[in-house]
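Hi R.,

Here are the chain sequences for the assembly we discussed:
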Amino acid sequence: MSLQSKPVVGVVGVGRMGAAMTLRLRDEGYRLGAVYDVRPEAAEASARESGAPRAGTLAGVTAACDAIVTVVSDDAAMDAIYRESGDSLLEGAGGKLFINCATIAPAVHVEIERRLAARGAASLEACMASSITQAREGTLYLMVAGAPEAFERARPLLSALAGSLRFIGPAGSAAQVKALVNMVMNINTAALAEGLALGDALGLDLTMLREVFAQTGANSRVLETDGADMQNREHDVYFSAAHAAKDSHIATALAAEAGLRLPLAEATAAQYDRMVAAGLGELDKSGIAELTFPGRGPHSDA
Amino acid sequence: MSLQSKPVVGVVGVGRMGAAMTLRLRDEGYRLGAVYDVRPEAAEASARESGAPRAGTLAGVTAACDAIVTVVSDDAAMDAIYRESGDSLLEGAGGKLFINCATIAPAVHVEIERRLAARGAASLEACMASSITQAREGTLYLMVAGAPEAFERARPLLSALAGSLRFIGPAGSAAQVKALVNMVMNINTAALAEGLALGDALGLDLTMLREVFAQTGANSRVLETDGADMQNREHDVYFSAAHAAKDSHIATALAAEAGLRLPLAEATAAQYDRMVAAGLGELDKSGIAELTFPGRGPHSDA
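And here is the predicted structure of the full complex:
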């Protein structure tokens, strides 16, 4: 693809993830039309780091760009940037492409697609099953949903961000799959924290125990990513406990709507809620081991 | 190792697992001194299949063999074959080697080692983290605990059964690790059953969903072993739900003794208890999906 055919790109929501994606797009030869964040210092930092102009308004982002990537924190923030009146990405949206990378409720994706379609704009959800390092390196695992023609239009840009692209289905379905991925991941994480904690209480060598887990039916991706961190109490945030709580609740809400009872998902959401309540929400999800290991705080009396 | 130096081996408890180990030992050139089972038909079948003499008493097994492998079903059965009076493997045990492969409570291993040591016999626990096919093929993953000199003495025989041997520590510690492996495996299994069930309720393609799980933080060994079976309702027993319930309770009992609260392990034990109560205990552990998927029975009102 020639440089000329690349769309001018804007990024809304330039926290650590959005800022990393901005740098990656720049490195891949995309012209950056604007960066925006409700926190002026975050927008300023990303603008300085990437060389992108900092937009003062959401409408200014839409005006300056052909394709807008949004990476906001939650359903309310997503609703706000696409508000029907006042400053909004919707103003002048016709003909443009919006790619929403935040982890939000499936129904919100469906509603945003509706608002954009009413204005003649295309939209996609591109849910990430990986984190900041992968965003910076362009090796994200992206689950994409929306209209197939929007996917084909966005494919070159998405390929600049992703090591693996998977088209899931209509709007909302990628968010559903993402919610399920994180629900299962969070349960497996909570399980690992319990297994290592009981091993510790029994006086077992946890390095040996992790090696045995890795060779048996106890093996899991989270054993690779979080096992040593749980043992060593290294909880620098990669995927926060607060995010884990949020995602677990997205899944349990979907289950409740579907009339399913999922006791493991509920118990896991309750554990992450306990972390948040104890002021541990900004630890990595591996910090759930702080709830289960003997002698670590906070103590449970629940 | 020459044929002459191999011990004469007996096997006590020749259900499917013990019978498979018996055949494997025969194929590896061990002379079989006796097989024994409390169920005469099981002993008869194994004797016929392997060519081993069927012993009429436990004392007869000890008398006929240098090394005795035991694969009984639970703590009570283990206690019974090593009873202090009446027909028992303890009679004439001095100088012989006993290898206990059943999944039982760690404290029982410690007690049996004490009884054997008092009679001048050596003992080991060799806990299996794999199943019948691996036993037959000599590719078990064996976690071994006991005195190091007993391990060295047993190593050739254990190597005939195992693809991988791991020495864990003193008597009881292999059973602890095994309980932890199965606890984490069972939670991960319950988690997978919930994730696939919710995906089914949402109308997602479960083959696609399993592929996404495999490439993300939701990946696990049980996804490989049980994911398709859950989707396709193929629950031929490989590791039964009743066994999963038993093992989960061994772990939660250890946690209770240690004063730890493990909500995921407890929720998982409760799910497997529900399977047993619903008459589904002889399904494979993957059958837990029958509790979670929409439209599958039994329906939960718990």
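Chain A touches chain B through 65 residues (CB under 8 Å). Chain A has a mean pLDDT of 94.

Let me know if anything looks off.

Best,
T.
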